Amino acid sequence: MARVFILEDSIPRIVKFTAAFINHTVTIAKTIEEAREKFCPPYDMIFLDHDLEDPDHPNPRPENTGSRFCEEFRDELNASTGLIIIHSLNYDGRQKMLSLIPVALPITYLNLDLVQLASQLTEAQ
C-alpha cells in the first residue's frame, strides 16, 4: 500500500481525497499542529494546501498555513522521492510554498484528477 499525506482543512475536499485514495494509507492533517504530530516520511504522494482555517480567525494565521509547514519540513520535503502537489487556490501562498519546495508541482485543487492520481499510484506499487 502506498502512503499519502494530505494537509487540508476543508471537509468536502478531505472526503474526496479519502475516497480517491481508499486503497492506500492516508494521513490527514487539518492544522500545522496536527501536521507536526502526524508527518512521518517517506510518502509516495503529498498534497499541501496553504490557507488552513481557524474558527477563531477569519483569515489564515501565518503560523497555520502551508507555507509554515514547508518552512518547518523543508529538508524532508525537498529530499522526498514521492510526488508533492501544492493544490492551494491562493496564488501568493502557493508561490511562497513553491519557493521553499521547488520539487513540488503547482496543481490547484480544481485541476486535480484524484481518481487518476490514485490509479497511477496503485499501478506503480
Count structural domains: 1
Radius of gyration: 13 Å
**Percent range for β-strand residues:** 15-25%
| Backbone structural class | alpha/beta
CATH topology: Rossmann fold
CATH architectural group: 3-Layer(aba) Sandwich
Order of strands side by side in the largest beta sheet? Answer: 2-1-3-4-5
Written as H for each helix and E for each strand, in order along the chain, the element string is: EHEHEHHEHEH
Give the termini separation: 7 Å
Number of strands: 5
Main beta sheet: strand number and arrangement? 5 strands, parallel
How many helices does DSSP assign?
6
Summarize model confidence as the mean pLDDT.
92
Shape: globular
Name the CATH superfamily classification: Response regulator
Low-confidence segments, ≥5 residues, pLDDT <50?
none
- CATH C-level class is Alpha Beta
Q: Helical content, roughly?
A: 40-55%
Structure characterization notes:
- The chain has a single domain, classed as Response regulator (Rossmann fold).
- The chain has a five-stranded parallel sheet with strand order 2-1-3-4-5, with helices on both faces.
- It is an alpha/beta fold and 125 residues long.
- The mean pLDDT is 92.
- 40% of the residues lie in helices and 16% in strands.
- The protein starts with a strand and ends with a helix.
Properties at a glance:
125 residues; alpha/beta; Rossmann fold; globular
Short description:
The chain has 125 residues and is an alpha/beta fold.
Summarize the helices and strands and which ones pair or pack.
Elements: E1 3-7, H1 11-20, E2 25-29, H2 32-38, E3 45-48, H3 66-72, H4 74-78, E4 83-86, H5 91-100, E5 105-106, H6 114-124
Parallel strand pairs: 1-2, 1-3, 3-4, 4-5
Helix pairs in contact: 3-5
